Amino acid sequence: MTVVELLHVLDSLAVVDIKKDADEQCESYRCCSLLESPTLLDTITAITSAVLLGLHNTDILPDVIAGLSIHCALNSRLLIERLVLNFPEKWYDIYECLLGRISILKGNSDHKGSARCLAVLHHLSTFVPDMNGLLNKCIQLRQLPSLVIQLAIKQSNTGENFSLINFFKRVLLDQGRKTQSWFGEYLKSAWETNPTLIADVNEKILSAISGILDDSKAVLPKEQLLPALEFLRTIAALCGHTGFVLSSKLRSFVLHLITHPTGRSEKAVNFICFCLAFIIGLRSCLFDNSVGLNEASSGETEEQLVVWLRRLISRQDIFHTSLRQSSSYSEVLLLFGLLFNDSHPTTIRDIIVNTLDIDAPCFVRNISASRKLFAQKVFTCQSIAAQAAHVPVTACLNAHITGNLPIHCVFQLLKNHAFNKNRVQIKGWIYRQICASVRPLHPLMLELLEIYVTNALTQTVGLASSQMIGACGGCVPFTEAELFVQFSDPAFGPDARMCAPGATGFVTDLAIDSVADAVQMDLTPQLLFLYYMLYIYDQELSSRSTDNRGNQRSQAKASLSQFSDKLWDAIPITYLLQYARSNLSSYRQLYPRLLQLVTEHRPHLTVGELTIQDELLLDPLWKSASSFQSFNSFCAAGHFATPTKAPLPNELLSVLDQILTPGASLDSLKSAAAACIRAVNALVETVNRQRGFSRLRHLLPYAEAIGCRLPRILLETAALSGNRRFTSAVCFLWRSLHCLMPRRLEVLTVKALSSKKETYSRLTHHDLLKDPVENIVMAVDQRVYRCPPVLTLLIRIIDCNLRASRAFWWHRVISRHFIGLTSTIASEKRETLTTASATPLPLVPITGDMEMQGFARGRRTGGNGRSTLEPASGSGIIGESSAASSSQPNALEPLASDDLCDRLRTTLVTCQDATVVQLLLEFCLPTAEEKRLNSEVTDLREVQNIICAFIHFLFIGDPNLAKVVFWQTYPRSLNPLATRAIPSIQVCADTVLEVFVKSGSLEDVVFCLDFVSHLALHCTFTSMLNLATYAVEVMHFIFTHLASLEEMASLLIACGPAFCRLGSAFPSIGHRLAAILLSAMAALAEAVTLAGGSRHRDILVRRIVTLKSVVLSDLNDASLKSLDLVKGDADSLPRLHHLTRTEKCFFACVQAMFWFNQLVRLTTAQRRLSLPPSIEELPSLLTCQSFSSLYSSYHSEK
């Protein structure tokens, strides 16, 4: 054969059409016999190799080998072998080409050709020294799995660097799900068709891992943990994906490796957690399934696992001590035990899949088989509860940590009441987990606290107070000492401790300029403990209210939530609320719930209207960009060209002390006032530049200046208090600081404004809420009630403490501390009585529905008239009041009913609020000097607006308070102001009828008539017309039937202005008012005539004639516009008690004629009265009704 012919043959083999049958091509080329000839083998090999090398193109070699494999007989293998060995650099290409030809031939259903190529590949594996290339290519192309497993076994026998464990790990774990499925499906069928293959693999695996456990008794070395973990993971994949059955030796080795002792390290923890998931998900791999040995072997294996699990439980505390900051296997043990007891196989399977990183279908079957081991032999209900108490808490628990955590297990056990049932104390774990929580808050923390409180309250039902804490297990409440630690140093910073109600010192060196400090500060544990305290308090009060409605107990129930004042005084509740609000995204669940509890049980800390005002004041969204910039005009131009730095707290205090120093010169006061203005302005600008929580914290070092000095300066220095911009800035700072430390700031301000500083130097916030009348309203300097900016602050203090007082007494009743149960509460009983006696008004019994039955009051002026308008009943109001007053000590007995306690509380609170309202109303009365001021723009007018607006909101919040204030009455001269500036006082219109019917005092009747007349000028409603008509009819009856002669003159003078106002408001009742005036004039005129004869009659006639001419000439519409003023008040009328009876009648008759003339003018629209009667008509008017007969008939009835 020539070289040309050989090249032609090689070229034909390289380009052979694999789509055609091999026999057809052999007949066409007639080449197979030539290449298969043994005699020409050496020559062909030499020529072929030389030709390929000479062409410098060996890429044709793989195709030639493929062609030889397909179209030549077996004798051509010798040529293939020599060609392959001559070109080792082409091995990988040859493998790839053969595998590609096999794939194509199988696709064309050419099984003979593919079989020949496969046979060549098997032949290559017999003489090629390195078959890793072929193995890798088969795995990459996912072809010929039988060849792959044969090559792997062969490589494990011959290659020192080849590990069958690593091979299975690579194929089943590292190469992806497709490769795993491809090879796993083959091995499942291969195990069944070729039993010897399982034995070979078991033997090879066992020999490969013999070095992991050198010493069966020693602890598994740290450096062997990772290989052992990789081995178990490979066995898990092999058994889970392929159904591989371990031999008895390998099974024993795996079991021994799992139960082997390990060291105390993080790697050891990971290894143990993996083993726990392995023995559950791949349980069948550890048990012998052969017939006859199943029960004995399974029992022995199960016993080894039980011993190992119990050893893990007993050694978990050692791991916790060694690995303080790392996780432990205790969490996994607890989670598996809990899930097995609650029958959650799906969740268990998810945990196993996540731990092993393998998802095998056999897991479900093995989990069901493992339930008996975990639920009955290892993790009983009691052991699970005990295990939960030993699980380490999750460090830095927050919402970003996902997955199955110990908190989920403990929460589930609390829902099942497992700790109470088995008397396992979990308080320590809950306490540590709260302390380890950070923001953003984990979403399960609130539910955990709530269910823990529920368990604690459930367990303590029926227990004595000495048995509540400590002795018994289960869920027990936190002790007060444990809670107090969390609100003291070092858990709390100096700024937070300063805002506590019980704090005494001031901190002026806070790092307020450090924004990073505010960001790093984390008060999550304190917020959770505060929520715990309020929630357990709320739940216990709710349960007690439910119990009290069912039955009345004769003694108090042991309490879990009656924390001492010392603890509450150490908690800055408002500070924590503001902190949570500034980090709302981190406390999105906690903040609204905490705010609701604080609003319910500490309403004075979250006043709704004031909160809205503070939002408008502090939120930059509602503030213009030029807020307080016009404040620069306080001082000379040029001082504030650039933003100024806020003064240091000590510097501001020194400036304020200069102003308050007595005896200072005028020049020093002026310079100090200017410096004060500049300092306050700079501080306001600095605060406005801050954002979020830091803007409020910035004011804390200035607490002493804002709470003590600035209010006093406004009170003492008229130049500064009259500067509206300066006062607005001071109020801005005060209210901003009030958002952080309200209780302490209120005490500081009241002390600064008190008139007797030595008396109130030890004043506390408890004193303010227990008796706001004595310790706030009456304690401050009276000049406060003529200083509007300071009064604004005081009104806020009064409002907050009235709310605090209501909540205080309500909780005293609900918690059964309102009455004395022991000797220790007896002192509180005396304190309650002292507080009640300090109130100016007596306690008046009020029913549960707050319907006022009447107040017993004596006549304020002397007289012989009767004190009631109706016949006296058998049991009068005075007797009831006296009985209630005399029975008050007996009401504070341990057996007092809840209704009685609630009535006493309602009475105390209502009288306290009514006293505050009446005192504030009296402060609205003008002094003699203020009456002489002829101006509407005065401090008094502004004070009246402030006070009336506050009273208006009080009446809206409690309409019954308005009725109580009306029953007790107030100075009649305040009716014009009250009806005009307090819109909510209209609710008292219904009370007027009760006063008319049930009151025993003519003064009260006159007060009601005056009130109705003033109210009618502003409310011309149908209901008001009906009320006015009723009042007029009552007064007509009093004037014509009940009033004595001595009473009639005073009564007519008191009622005359009211008649005119009623006639102006409702002209339709003018004729009834005229009838009252005419009848009274007739009676009084006849009394004058009888007493003085014709001389007095002539004098009276002349006076009326003069009055007629004056009225007809001077009375105009302008003079009728001031009808809300009480004409004929004590200041403008003479002292009637100094006059004789004839003089009284004379004066009253003249005044009545004047009011009659006014009434005519006011009711001319009705045309029922035209002009005043002339002098000629007066005799007939006086004799229209015999006064003597009326008087005699009246006394005969009497």
From TrEMBL:
Family affiliation: Belongs to the Integrator subunit 2 family.
Species per Swiss-Prot/TrEMBL record: Echinococcus granulosus
GO biological process: snRNA 3'-end processing
Residues passing through the membrane, by range: none
Bias (Low complexity) ranges: 872-887
One cellular component (GO) term of this entry: integrator complex
Keywords: Nucleus
Protein name: Integrator complex subunit 2
Location relative to the cell: Nucleus
Residue numbers spanned by region Disordered: 855-890
